[in-house]
UniProtKB/TrEMBL annotation:
<dbReference type="InterPro" id="IPR008914">
    <property type="entry name" value="PEBP"/>
</dbReference>
<dbReference type="InterPro" id="IPR036610">
    <property type="entry name" value="PEBP-like_sf"/>
</dbReference>
<keyword id="KW-0649">Protein kinase inhibitor</keyword>
<dbReference type="GO" id="GO:0004860">
    <property type="term" value="F:protein kinase inhibitor activity"/>
</dbReference>
<dbReference type="Pfam" id="PF01161">
    <property type="entry name" value="PBP"/>
</dbReference>
<protein>
    <submittedName>
        <fullName>YbhB/YbcL family Raf kinase inhibitor-like protein</fullName>
    </submittedName>
</protein>
<dbReference type="InterPro" id="IPR005247">
    <property type="entry name" value="YbhB_YbcL/LppC-like"/>
</dbReference>
Length: 174
């Protein structure tokens, strides 16, 4: 009986799906900020591990829930990332990056394809949440111009696990 309980306990204690970024700290670096706010608009390095074995693809989002739009602001949506990809190098969100095609990058709320860094209105800091999703589907067939909120809902419906990190940024921070 003890061996069975330990085995069950071992399954329950399995490693958690995690996301890490050496670039994305509590206070977001100016190089990751949108150009209109004085930044370089460079997407951060993302590394994830311990996805569920059932994962068929990954997706990435970056979302600002504090944007004064009534529905937040989508800064980055990437879908159809193959399961053998577990890292997005710095600046992979740029259409000119050699890593841009690691996944299918769609439009953000700036109306641009790929990564669009933080650029909140003046005021208190906003939260920027980057999430990597492990999905139960191999991918989605959507146009790059599809509203990011619609794609995010589809991602949530097919997520079997997710891991997030959060950073803060206020206009004028250096």
């Amino acid at each position: 009986m003890k061996k069975l309980l330990l085995l069950i306990g071992g399954v329950v204690m399995s490693m958690a799906f995690t996301l890490y970024s050496p670039d994305f700290k509590e206070k977001i670096s100016l190089k990751h900020v949108y150009p209109a706010c004085g930044g370089e608009n460079i997407s951060p390095t993302l590394i994830w591990k311990d996805a569920p074995k059932e994962t068929k693809s990954f997706a990435i989002t970056m979302f600002d829930p504090d944007a004064p739009t009534g529905h937040g602001w989508w800064h980055w949506v990437v879908i159809n990332i193959p399961t053998n990809v577990t890292e997005f190098p710095e600046n992979a969100g740029s259409p000119v990056s050699e890593y841009f095609d690691l996944g299918y990058q769609t439009i953000n709320d700036y109306g641009e394809i790929g990564y669009g860094g933080p650029c909140p209105p003046p005021g208190p800091p906003h939260r920027y949440i980057i999430t990597v999703y492990a999905l139960n589907v191999a991918g989605f067939k959507v146009k790059r111009e599809t509203n990011p909120q619609i794609i995010a809902k589809a991602i949530e419906q097919h997520a079997i696990a997710k891991a997030s990190i959060m950073g803060l940024y206020a206009r004028g921070w250096r």
